[in-house]
UniProtKB/TrEMBL annotation:
Origin superkingdom: Bacteria
Domain called ABC transporter: residue spans: 8-239
InterPro entries the UniProt entry points to: AAA+_ATPase (IPR003593), ABC_SmlMolc_Importer (IPR050093), ABC_transporter-like_ATP-bd (IPR003439), ABC_transporter-like_CS (IPR017871), Mo/tungstate-bd_C_term_dom (IPR008995), P-loop_NTPase (IPR027417), Transp-assoc_OB_typ2 (IPR013611)
UniProt keywords, alphabetically: ATP-binding, Nucleotide-binding, Transport
Protein name per its UniProtKB record: ABC transporter ATP-binding protein
Source species taxonomy: Bacteria, Bacillati, Actinomycetota, Actinomycetes, Streptosporangiales
Pfam families assigned to the protein according to its UniProt record, in alphabetical order: ABC_tran (PF00005), TOBE_2 (PF08402)
GO molecular function: ATP binding
Length: 347
């Protein structure tokens, strides 16, 4: 193995379950050392299947899994250099926190002194120094999940696999744990492959991410890249909100039912993020339309405006602050955007 060998690699992985259900159709990706890689997609798109194939909990129907350059074909889960953290954690309730963390290293017959060191550094890493003598039932949900992560990392896996690990926590705790997890990942230098259906979680935590749909990868890239430059209508609509107009390309125009849009380049659709849509009077942007303000939705830091164009098409604008005089439902308004705000899509 050399330093450019990825920590994890999936080549043409396909999984058909025994009952004929299609787990994944075709999945290819590589994860480099120390990377936080996420798989994001709607329920049933094949995220868990992909993770389970990596873990060795499922054998792929075809294709191959490599960890640090080594084929995992036929190798059972407990002999792979991977560990998995689940949404429903499986701490041993009758063991203390320290003994839970020590479980793996003891199984590997590490000397007692070394086990003690590992437990100490893991408790430190997950911010639970001083909690070693407690039992799982004496900890909060977030603390228990930290122990589960410490226990998995104590085995020093090449790749840590996490299947919606924060899914059972309430929103506030989830946000705190997202930051904690990101720090733990960074400090430990361990490669993480993370599954979530929560786009904010994937966008905020990942170094790179894959958007999945119906057993396939739609797009892989940096979170900002996927958000700003989606390659498909699925990615554009799944990741954040957007105004999606589908139609026929005519030169520098996209002719969509009820709206004609100036675009840069030909394609079968254009995606315009609400935060790039202006609203007001006497706009100067290249695409301008008249309509009636149908809804104003106050969201705290920003406000959403639903504008119904004369043709019946709905355009959504999101603004950080009120510009000029306040707008009210029923007002006649202008809405629009510049050509470069539209991302042209071909599939
Ligand atoms: P996700 O994690 O994205 O929600 P899954 O990987 O769990 O998706 O599921 C992908 C597809 O495989 C779904 O259609 C699901 O019903 C099917 N599936 C998952 N696990 C099994 C199984 N053990 N047996 C049969 N079908 C399964």
């Amino acid at each position: 193995m050399n330093s450019s060998t990825p920590d994890a690699e999936l080549r043409g992985v396909r999984k058909v379950y025994d009952n004929g259900a299609r787990g994944v159709e075709q999945v290819d990706f590589t994860v480099t050392k120390g990377e936080f890689f996420s798989m994001l997609g709607p329920s049933g798109c094949g995220k868990s299947t992909t993770l389970r194939v990596l873990a060795g909990l499922e054998e792929p129907t075809s294709g191959e899994v490599l960890i640090r350059g080594e084929s995992m074909r036929g190798r059972p889960s407990h002999r792979r250099p991977t560990n998995m953290v689940f949404q429903r954690l499986a701490l041993f309730p009758h063991l203390t926190v320290a003994d839970n963390i020590a479980f793996g290293p003891r199984l590997q017959r590490k000397p007692g002194k070394r086990v003690g060191e590992i437990v100490g550094s893991m408790l430190e890493l997950v911010g639970l120094a001083g909690f070693g003598r407690r039992y799982p039932a004496q900890l909060s949900g977030g603390q228990q999940q930290r122990v589960a992560i410490a226990r998995a990392l104590a085995n020093e896996p090449a790749v840590l696999l996490l299947d919606e690990p924060l899914g059972a926590l309430d929103l506030r705790l989830r946000v705190q744990m997202q930051q904690a997890l990101k720090r733990i990942q960074h400090d430990s230098g361990t490669t993480f492959v993370y599954v979530t259906h929560d786009q904010v979680e994937a966008l905020t935590m990942s170094d790179r991410m894959a958007v999945m749909n119906e057993g396939r990868i739609e797009q892989i890239g940096l979170p900002a890249e996927l958000y700003r430059s989606p390659a498909t209508t699925f990615t554009a609509t799944f990741l954040g909100d957007t105004n999606l107009f589908e139609g026929d390309s005519r030169g520098d125009l996209l002719e969509s039912p009820g709206i004609s849009i100036k675009v840069a380049g030909g394609g079968r659709a254009v995606s315009v993020r609400p935060e790039h849509v202006a609203i007001g009077k006497d706009l100067t942007c290249a695409n301008r339309y008249h309509g009636r303000l149908e809804d104003v939705i106050f969201q705290g830091a920003s406000t959403r405006y639903h504008v119904r164009l004369t043709s019946g098409v709905l355009v959504i604008s999101e603004r950080r602050e009120e510009t000029g005089s306040p707008l009210a439902v029923g007002d006649d308004v202008e809405t629009g955007w510049d050509v470069d705000a539209g991302v042209v899509l071909n599939q």
